[in-house]
Hints:
Shape: elongated
Number of helices: 1
Order of helices and strands: EEEH
Mean pLDDT: 79
Structural class: alpha+beta
Strand order of the largest sheet: 1-2-3
Number of domains: 1
Oligomer: single chain
Distance between the termini: 17 Å
Radius of gyration: 14 Å
Helix content: 10-25%
Low-confidence stretches: none
Amino acid sequence: MPDWQLTATTILCDTCGAEVTIIVYKDRTVKCTGTSIPSGKDKRAEAPACFAEKCARVNEYKAKLDAEEQGG
């Protein structure tokens, strides 16, 4: 288990087209703020579905964390 509780980074989301924060917890669960961003001109419209667990950018960030923990 890592020594940290959570880590986060900001990325440009391919799904919603905005900057979002992805949060990775030490148990490797992921949350993304992309689901709270309104889409389109209607600010009440729902954001596109976020599939953080299947997102390539999230998985790249998790792989980077794994490499750092392995000392690489």
